[in-house]
UniProtKB/TrEMBL annotation:
Residues 306-449 form the Tip attachment protein J domain. It comes from the Bacteria. Residues 1-22 form the signal peptide. InterPro entries: J_dom. It comes from Paracoccus siganidrum. Keywords: Membrane, Signal, Transmembrane, Transmembrane helix. The chain crosses the membrane at residues 38-61. This is Tip attachment protein J domain-containing protein.
Length: 731
C-alpha cells in the first residue's frame, strides 16, 4: 500500500551519514535555506542529509570506454622521438615503450636518452632494442665512469652500453656527459622519472642493417613498474599489480586532478584490493590473482579524469561510485543483500522496466587484450556464449567486443568477458522513492525486492544504481526524508567461474624478435613468345616477362630489379638498369611482374630482383636464362624452287618467297638425298612476299645430283614448312 507523500521521521536516535568534508554545505543549506538554528536536532539532521548528497554508481558497459586509445596505438605513439614526451604512468609488469627525448651522434656512436615512466619505478628491468632482448653484464645503475651495463649477446655485443635511472638518480651518467662535448650535462638527470641512457655503436656497414634496422632504435623495457601505496598496510610503498590499488594510485597521483584521501572512500578501495588479490583457480592447475592490471596509461587534455581511468577499471570490471562527494569503487564480486524492500512511497511515480532495448543486450562476448607472447599486440579470447541468450532473443546472435587494454592474461580476460556479457542480460529495473529506513543504502549496495502482487515479475536481487536523499523541514522537532532510488537487476551468477568447464585454451604466440636479413622473392618465372607479346593496332610488340611472388618478410615495402643480357657468341653477361616496384604493383593474386619490350629475338636474358624493406635490402634473386622469342604464328611454304645444272661443277637454284606479308626471310637448304630432315642450310636471304631469289652452289663434282628445299621465316623466327624438292645433276 502506498504511503503519504510526506513521511515524518522522529529525530530521536537518528544517525546521519558522513563525509565530514561536505558538512559546511549541509550547514549552509540547514541554516540559510531552511532557517534552522545551529545546535538544534533539525539543523543536525538536515545538514547530515544534505551532506550525504547523491550517491551514483558509474556503469562500465554503458560507458563502453568512451573511445580511449587502444594500448597498441599508445605503445606505437610513445616510441616516436619528441622533445615534448607524453606524461605516462606504467603499471604492473609489462613492456614500457621508450620515447627518445634527447640524442646526439659522434662518428659512429649514437648517444640517446629514452623516457620510460613519468615517475619512479620498481624494477628489475630488461631492455629490448627493436623487440630483441639485450643480455648484459655490469650494473646499469652505476653512473660513475666506466659504469653501466654492457651487452653480451649478438648482435649487440661490443656495440651497446646502457644506464637506467629508476627515478632516484640525481645526475646523468658520467660517460654520457664526458663523451658528448656538453650536449648532455650532469644536470640532465630526469630526476623523479624512469629513463634509460644508451651508448650505441653502429658497427661495420655489413652488419649495421641487421643490428640497427630502425633509426633511432625502437626501445621497450620489460620490468616491474608501479610503486603504489596500500591503505591496508598503512600506506607502505611497494610494487603491485593489484587492479584496485592501481586505480587508487591513478586517482591520487594523476596530473589532471589528483584526489586527496579526504575525497576518497578508502574503505571501498581496501575492500576492492582484497577482491583483486583473491586466488582464482585455472584449468591448468594452480591459481592466479583475480584482477591484475598491466599497461601504460597516458594522460591527455580534453577528457574527464574518470574517462581516462576507464581502462584501469575495465581490468577488474569495477565501477566508481560517488557517495556524499567522495569517490569510491565497487569491485566485481558477489555481494550479499543488506536490505529487503517491501514498500515504497507515493512521492514519485513507480517506474518498472521489464525488457531493455535490444541495443544493450548481448548473447556472446569476446575480449581483446595485449598478449605478452605476441609482443603485446592485440589478441582475442575465445567467444563466451551466454547460455540460452540467443534463443531468448529470437535466435539472433549479438556479440559484445570488450577492449581490455590493461589485461595481459587471457584467463582473466575470459572471466571479464563473461561478466560483461552476463551483466548486459540483467534487464529488470525499478525507479521509485523509498522510506527513510533505506537511508543506509548507497550506490553499489545490494538489496532484495519483494513488492508482492502484482509485482511478482520484479521480485529478486538488485543493485542500487543511484540514491539521492534529501530532507524537508516540518518544524524544529521533525523533518521529512525522501530517498529517490534507481535499482538494476543483479545476480551472483554473473561472477561465478568454473575453470574446468568455462576456461577455454588459447594458442600461445611464438614471437621471435630476432631480425634476420630481408628475404628475397622465393623464385622468378620467365616467359617469352606469344604470351609475352602485346598487340598495338597492327603492330605486334615482342617481350620477355619476369614474374615473382612476394617475399616472406613482412617488412618488405617494394622490389628493385635489373636485366642481364648475354651479348655475342661468348655469352658475356651485361647488367642493365631496370626499376623499382611498390607493393601496390602486385596483381589480385599477389604476383609482381615486369616486361622487357623489344628484346633481341634469339638473345638470352635473365632478371635479378631484390626486396627493399624497413630493415634494408635482401640479396639478389636471379632467374634462369631464357631465349627471347616473338609470338608464334603460321606461314605458308614458299611458292616454289627450281634447280638447273650449269656444267660439271655448278647448279643454279631459284626460289620464290611465300605470298604472305609476314614473310621476311627465305631459307634454302641442300642435300645429297631427297630428304628435308637432314638437309643443310645453304643460304639465308632477306625476301618479302612473292620475291624470287637466285643462288648458285659451286665446287660440285661431275655427275653429282643435289636436292634443294626452301622454307619461309617471319620477323619473329616462325618457320613455314619445306617446299617439295628440286634436283639437278652436274654434267
Amino acid at each position: 500500500m502506498r504511503k503519504l507523500l510526506l513521511v515524518t521521521t522522529a529525530l530521536v536516535g537518528f544517525a546521519h551519514a558522513e563525509p565530514a568534508e561536505a558538512a559546511p554545505v549541509g550547514a549552509w543549506v540547514a541554516g540559510t535555506v531552511f532557517g534552522l538554528s545551529a545546535g538544534t536536532a533539525a539543523f543536525a539532521v538536515v545538514s547530515g542529509v544534505v551532506t550525504m548528497a547523491i550517491s551514483v554508481g558509474l556503469n562500465l558497459i554503458a560507458q563502453k570506454l568512451r573511445g580511449n586509445p587502444k594500448q597498441e596505438a599508445v605503445r606505437t605513439e610513445l616510441t616516436r622521438p619528441t622533445s615534448l614526451p607524453a606524461y605516462r604512468f606504467v603499471y604492473g609488469k609489462t613492456w614500457a615503450p621508450g620515447t627518445p627525448v634527447a640524442w646526439t651522434v659522434k662518428g659512429r656512436v649514437l648517444y640517446i636518452c629514452y623516457l620510460l615512466n613519468s615517475r619512479p619505478s620498481a624494477g628489475p628491468f630488461t631492455p629490448l632494442f627493436d623487440k630483441r632482448v639485450v643480455e648484459k653484464s655490469g650494473n646499469e645503475f652505476d653512473f660513475g665512469g666506466g659504469g653501466g651495463a654492457v651487452a653480451t649477446n649478438d648482435p649487440f655485443s661490443g656495440h651497446v652500453r646502457y644506464w637506467i635511472g629508476n627515478g632516484s638518480q640525481i645526475v646523468c651518467p658520467a660517460q654520457i656527459v664526458s663523451e658528448t662535448d656538453g650536449y648532455f650535462t650532469a644536470s640532465d638527470a630526469w630526476q623523479g622519472r624512469t629513463v634509460l641512457w644508451a651508448r650505441l655503436n653502429c658497427g661495420d656497414d655489413e652488419g649495421r642493417q641487421e643490428r640497427w634496422p630502425a633509426t633511432p632504435p625502437e626501445l621497450n623495457v620489460d620490468g616491474n613498474w608501479s610503486l603504489v601505496r596500500d591503505p591496508r598496510t598503512g600506506g607502505t610503498l611497494a610494487f603491485s599489480r593489484n587492479q584496485a590499488l592501481i586505480v587508487l594510485d591513478a586517482l591520487r597521483n594523476n596530473p589532471v586532478r589528483a584526489y586527496s584521501d579526504q575525497y576518497l572512500r578508502l574503505d571501498t578501495f581496501r575492500w576492492a584490493a582484497d577482491v583483486a588479490d583473491e586466488a582464482v583457480a585455472v584449468k591448468g592447475g594452480g591459481t592466479i590473482p583475480r584482477y591484475c592490471c598491466d599497461g601504460v596509461l597516458v594522460f591527455g587534455d580534453g577528457a574527464e579524469l574518470e574517462d581516462q581511468l576507464q581502462p584501469l577499471l575495465a581490468a577488474g570490471a569495477s565501477r566508481l561510485t560517488r557517495i556524499g562527494g567522495r569517490l569510491g569503487i565497487i569491485p566485481a564480486t558477489p555481494r550479499p543483500s543488506v536490505k529487503t524492500i517491501t514498500d515504497y512511497t507515493d512521492g514519485q511515480p513507480l517506474d518498472l522496466i521489464r525488457w531493455r532495448s535490444s541495443d544493450d543486450l548481448y548473447t556472446e562476448a569476446v575480449a581483446r587484450y595485449p598478449a605478452p607472447d605476441r609482443a603485446y599486440e592485440s589478441a582475442e579470447t575465445p567467444v563466451y556464449v551466454v547460455p540460452g541468450a540467443q534463443e531468448a532473443d529470437g535466435g539472433v546472435a549479438k556479440r559484445l567486443w570488450l577492449d581490455l587494454d590493461f589485461v595481459t592474461d587471457y584467463r582473466q580476460a575470459e572471466r571479464l568477458a563473461k561478466i560483461a556479457a552476463e551483466r548486459s542480460r540483467m534487464q529488470r529495473g525499478i525507479s521509485f522513492e523509498l522510506f527513510p529506513d533505506s537511508f543506509d543504502l548507497v550506490a553499489g549496495s545490494m538489496c532484495d525486492v519483494d513488492l508482492g502482487s502484482p509485482f511478482g515479475a520484479w521480485q529478486g536481487k538488485y543493485e542500487v544504481d543511484s540514491i539521492s536523499p534529501f530532507a524537508g523541514v516540518n518544524d524544529d522537532e521533525s523533518i521529512t526524508i525522501r530517498l529517490p532510488t534507481v535499482l538494476t537487476e543483479s545476480s551472483d551468477a554473473i561472477y561465478a567461474w568454473n575453470a574446468a568447464t568455462e576456461e577455454q585454451d588459447v594458442l600461445a604466440g611464438a614471437f621471435d624478435g630476432s631480425v634476420g636479413r630481408v628475404q628475397p622473392p622465393p623464385s622468378i618465372v620467365m616467359t617469352t613468345g606469344t604470351a609475352a607479346a602485346e598487340q598495338s593496332g597492327d603492330t605486334v610488340i615482342p617481350g620477355v616477362i619476369a614474374a615473382w611472388n612476394g617475399s616472406p618478410s613482412a617488412s618488405v615495402t617494394g622490389y628493385e630489379y635489373e636485366w642481364i643480357v648475354y651479348a655475342g657468341s661468348s655469352g658475356t653477361p651485361a647488367v642493365r638498369p631496370g626499376g623499382k616496384l611498390s607493393l601496390d604493383a602486385a596483381d589480385e593474386f599477389g604476383v609482381f611482374s615486369v616486361t622487357l619490350q623489344f628484346p633481341q629475338i634469339g638473345t638470352d636474358y635473365q632478371i635479378r630482383v631484390r626486396s627493399i624493406g624497413t630493415y634494408g635490402e635482401s640479396e639478389w634473386r636471379t632467374s634462369a636464362p631464357i631465349t627471347a622469342a616473338g609470338p608464334s604464328g603460321s606461314l605458308p611454304v614458299p611458292q616454289g624452287i627450281t634447280a638447273v645444272a650449269q656444267g660439271a661443277n655448278r647448279i643454279n637454284v631459284t626460289a620464290t618467297q611465300a605470298a604472305d606479308p609476314n614473310a621476311r626471310t627465305l631459307l634454302i637448304y641442300g642435300n645429297d638425298v631427297d630428304s628435308s630432315l637432314t638437309a643443310e642450310l645453304l643460304w639465308t636471304v632477306p625476301a618479302g612476299a612473292s620475291v624470287s631469289v637466285a643462288r648458285s652452289e659451286t665446287g660440285l663434282g661431275s655427275g653429282t645430283t643435289r636436292y634443294y628445299f626452301a622454307r619461309a621465316r617471319d620477323q619473329w623466327s616462325n618457320l613455314s614448312g619445306f617446299t617439295d624438292s628440286a634436283s639437278a645433276t652436274t654434267s
